[in-house]
User: What shape does this take?
Amino acid sequence: MSFALADSTRQFRNALGSFATGVTIITTVGPDGSDVGVTANSFNSVSLDPPMILWSLGKNSTSLAAFMAAEHFVVHVLAMDQEALSGRFARSTTDKFAGLTVTRGVGGVPLLPGCAARFHCRTAYRHEGGDHIILVGEVEEFDHDGHAPLAFHGGRYGMFIRNEVPSPDEAAAGVAPLLSDLLARAEAGLGRRIDADVAAFGLAPHEFDLLRLLAAGPRSLEELEELAGPAGETAAVVLVEDLAARGLVSPPANGTVVIAAAGQDAVTAVTAQMAKTEAAALEALTPHEAALLRRFLTRLVRTVDG
Assistant: This one.
């Protein structure tokens, strides 16, 4: 569907939103010495020799005067966990830096920590650009630390994930595997490793499940019954008596079971080992891919549980 430019400014903006970008915060120091910062996704590279970048700021921005007068500014490319910071600097507030710990760069410009990259610039040119001013900066210093970037597309924040080349077997099959099959295989493989972690501490999976439940607080025998062994083959009272004999829980008093110190220590140790096993399994993913996986699985669980 095409639109004449006169049709709608909003339609034009929506079309521009089809172009995925990163998100930046540009900071400088105002003529009165105050710190100034704005969120912008109009950032782009211009030249490698000399190193130059550009970005644009609306003529109606309350920060325009500061950037028009500034000799230096810093472009912060935000990391994927800095969405809240982007929102803070996108709003018109009196002190966007309140509560933030900043250091100082070239020209005393405030520097925000934890970003994917930062470009310390000398203002080289300012150009008219319709209802915006285009600012071109010559990069004097820069740094980056490998943080995954925050992405912006269609008016929403997101995360970048690289495309994967199908394996020869997947390409030969020609049909994508069912999600349920992939989840089942992943669960079974990770489950075998977790069961081995639990067994290394002398516990059966259902014993650990019961101890982990008790670690959250005392429970009655009736509440524990559903966790009493595979398919409920072992009565809760028998399981609890066995754990009590090993000093992992206190003997039931009035039908209530309380975890012992040794049981709590076991839960802590096994949980720590399980976390290491999970981290090792996730090494095939980048940190932001792992975060994306958690987000998608959480959403899926809410859907199927609902």
